[in-house]
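Make up an example, fold above all:
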Amino acid sequence: MRRLIAERGRAIGIFSVEASQAELLDRLAQTEGIEWTRVIGFHGSELLGADENAPHSQRKFLFNHLVRRIPMVEFHGLRGEAANPEAVCANYAELLKTRSPDFALLGIGDSGQLAAIDSRNCDFSDSCAVKPTDSAVTLTIPTLVACRSLFLIATGGEKRQAVKALIEGEIHESCPASILQNHSNTHLFLDKEAASGLTHII
């Protein structure tokens, strides 16, 4: 973010991490030297029916651990509570066109999910930038991988198989995160437990 702000005057990012990674956002909020008034934020997905005060709302999680703690110039939340999810997705897609994200901070699900994209709704060639699924409104794989820089965080033994599939498995929609093998600027941050299933420790 510091580099983007220095070079381009602003940084635009997608924040899509899990509740288990709250410490990461807490530390980011405390990091010195980031001009948050030049940062625009998007987030990856929101549960259908969830407003920003719902217990499992990702917006609530991001607001509590990051957005309310720093002077981010813009943060655009997906409205899971809206009566028309298709309209929400269409409007959000138009907003993304005017503010193309530079980077994405991502978590990975136990089965290789990214945002709310799992094996049931994954399409590596999806024509939609944002779409509703059975349970959420979510950014799609093409939207995520269009970012120039991707930062993926995985912690805990329950991520072991997903991390192995991501790094050592076939690129296949059964593991959405496997598409990151084709991204030239993906950075992985793993703890020992998440990396323990790898044949060759990286």
